[in-house]
Fold:
Amino acid sequence: MRTITQYVIGIILVCATQFVAAQENPNILKIEALETRKEHVKTQEKEFLKEEVKRINDKLDTGEISSEQAEELKQKEAEKHALNIENRIAIIDNKIALLERNEEVTSDVGANLDGMIIQIGKGEDSDEFDKGGIYIGPKDKAIPKVYDRRTTSDMVFAIGFNNAIIEGQSLSDSPYKLGGSGFVELGWAWKTRLFKNTNAVRLKYGLSVQWNKLDVKDDKFLTETEGVVSLEESAFNLKKSKFRTTNLVIPIHFEFGPSKKIEKDTYFRYSTYNKFKIGVGGYAGVNLSSMHKTKYKLDGDREKDKERDLNTNPFVYGVSSYVSFGNVAVYAKYDLSPLFKDQIIDQNNISLGLRFDLD
Structure:
């Protein structure tokens, strides 16, 4: 779990840094993409040069040209692709300078330089081409925009507090620690506009992995006897007593909220950038694994025990909802399926945290 947590924290820091930077300059993501593109330009032109040299060598091998002609042709190709790198990077630098000076840059300002066009695709609100990434090349070969793109996609990441509601008990009497119990969710989601002429309702669906962890209080641990799962007092002073489940689920939400319609000559888009959104739905899937881990000292030696399964319910389903502004949401989910199957007293997992839609 430590490795997963470190990875999650790293994602949060990256997202937070990009979010702050984007507030200072809304074009920061486009600028970063163009900076990355410079290295790609060099690599691409070198690959083109290799292909041309191979063709020249093939002609030399078949006797179509002499060795002197081959060397001359190679020299011309090397000069051509060196100039291509210089010119293409100059185009990118001009575009970067334009984006740094202006918060809003229309597609016809500075886009066409020396017969070349730059297109940047990023997220659902992109005014550029629709397959993502960056295109730099002849304008007549640019990928055409889709007039009405109704489905977009993004990565979903969520993190927060986790606990369990036990039948006949209040959450305040839970045997699991609030601070040490947490959840992480990571997945990919698609969002589809449901109606042709309005973006008021969207269907958001995808595939996610959920990690739910419960930190047991008071030197107790979970144990199973003939299918019955119970909390028992440990004979040792437990340094750690944690139970974790890993679930693969399909989440589905109906998303409501306002959007801005962006209309151009060749296409239109609905933008939910910096808009208030509400999502209501649920999820269903399977339990991939579960494990209870305890750590303690015995005769001065550190001991660690792991017990798997614990009669965990193999199927998972529940309800979830989020309220967001922009790409950050308050997120809650509740397992309608009991944590352990065939129990006299059911325990149902509940989570509350933050959710990030990473375009």
User: Anything to note?
Assistant: The chain has three helices and 16 strands.
